[in-house]
Amino acid sequence: MNSTNDEELSTLSDIFGSNVFNDAVMRRTLPKETYRSIRQTIEDGTPLDPQVADVVASVMKDWAIGKGATHFTHWFQPMTGLTAEKHDSFISPTPDGRVILDFSGKELIKGEPDASSFPSGGLRATFEARGYTAWDITSPAFVKDGSLYIPTAFASYNGEALDQKTPLLRSMDALSTQAMRILRLLGNTTSRRVTTTVGPEQEYFVIDKDHFDQREDLIITGRTLFGAPAPKGQELEDQYFAVINDRITAFMADVDTELWKLGVSAKTKHNEVAPAQHELAPIFATANIATDHNHLMMETMRKVALRHGLVCLLHEKPFAGINGSGKHNNWSMATDDGHNLLEPGQTPHDNIQFLLLLSAIIKAVDEYADLLRASIANTGNDHRLGANEAPPAIVSIFLGEQLTDILEQIEKGGVSKSKLATTVHLGTNRLPSLPKDTTDRNRTSPFAFTGNKFEFRMVGSLASIAPANTVLNTIVAESLRQFADRLETAKDLQSDINALILETIKKHKRVIFNGNNYAPEWVAEAGERGLPNITNTVDAISVMLDKKNVDVMNQHAVLNHVEMESRAEVQWEIYVKTINIEGLTMASMARRRILPAAIGYKASLAASIGSILEAGGDAEVEKALLNRAGKVLVSFNADLEKLEKAIETAAAADGGSREQAVAYRDLVFTAMADLRVNADTLETLVDADYWPMPTYSELLFNV
Ligand code: ADP
Ligand code: MG
Fold this sequence. Notes:
By secondary structure, the protein is α+β, with helices and mostly antiparallel strands.
């Protein structure tokens, strides 16, 4: 822990942001001109003056040392989806053999980590090992664990993005540029920028560390590769929003405090649907800061859990048969002068700006549903999308009653009214009447309008939210670009806007679906509507390289085709490595734990049959059991051999990373599923004393 004096920070408002070099600290500590110059760079993107950087670095260093920091680190987000950091101390030698504490503007602005140890998807081979980190001035630095953390972007020697932050920042610029064109057309002369705002709700599981430590699968892969269902799952619906137990409460309180110190506005916490599952949501921020904060949130939850003898599982599907975890990525656009552009107001039907932006989003999601799907693809999500709780892999939009009605009116030739919000009466005057939302919730939609923002629910719990927001920003920027190109030359702006909205709705309404996304009929209907249903990561990655998708990212200068290719390459590699590790872990657990346990149990059964018969007894039950366990064991053993063989074959597959990923998907992934079935049956037959690892009951119901 850092040496912040916890007793002094008694009240929440003192704690909040206490370890962050935020605007208030800058205003207080920087010379006036430096502060003004920094604000200009943050707000308007004016180039950073090196002298200003020197002053900021020096002040930042003194502030950080005051918070107990001895080191600084450029903190970045390589294409692994995780964060990376390398710490340098502030010490600098003096000629007389002593040291001073030093930190220059240059060190603040630029770092040179060796890029060759991070995935580059081929960029590295072409451009050598050199890579740079560059200070992201829009996300505040902070002190944590004795180091000053400087959020940075990470790029190759030639400026190709090697990280998640660079394209995200570029996409935010793209969206701002195009959205401003529309706002200007509509008569807005005061706003200067449009930012994307994001509030990611984070789902996670917490289990006891003693149990975790006995499961090789959880330790190595983050999910259980075996495990028969517990007698109780989530069917009683008794966990969602339930009373939080003391141990979890203490953990959550600790997480909140640590996050508040880092300026992360942890706001809402509750138990989620599955046993041992919970959620933490922050207050929304700019997409960039929200991404950084989400990384801090995940890291803090993991660390703090250990202090409480717990382990926080962030995998998308740690347990089969019950809900997995995701991130609900709440997304909107706001002007720098504080207007949420997705706020429909009381009468959305006459809010032309809102309807135009809404049409742009509908068009974007319909035209680039496949790219959005690709942006959230990972091996963990493959277990979740289409499984029992999650949105299916089909991207569709939920608009709700009021907006759907407005769009229908527009289509029929003219919109005249918005269904008004009403009041709910609760049947007794002792309770207040409540203003009703204009739309009910739809928890099954992957992309739902929730009043004044969209909630993209397909993002995986472990994934960075950057790729999803990068794509979202870029595709909406592209719709807005097309709209602006057309409207800027309009003779009659008003009627052209109306025509544009009408055309867009007609053309793209197929992506709107207000029904139950989990129903099997939807899959068929979506097929008829021509909506893509990309069921696995390997295919989703391929879609990134479709011409229209490469073009849109390139056109808005978010990722060029080389960068897109490198990203696809990296993702296939990650897929192959992940499935390989899972397959090897599974085979090892099967051979070295489950097989011996089942054999041991069979031997004990055989021994007792022997002694029963010797004593002249009747061992029918024992014999039947032995026979049954024996049969399952034979299949289990055959499946184990099949898995081992599949791993060998896939590892030797010819071709590039895509071909190898296909081999892992078609051979290893399927062999794993088969082996699991027999293993889980064995678990239900074998004496609990023989079973070599904690069961689902123990894992899920023991905190
Ligand atoms: P809901 O109950 O619909 O999930 P909440 O108000 O609880 O809505 O918000 C859920 C998340 O959405 C929070 O992280 C919140 O900060 C975020 N959020 C709210 N408004 C916006 C917005 N305009 N842009 C982005 N995120 C937002
Ligand atoms: Mg929500």
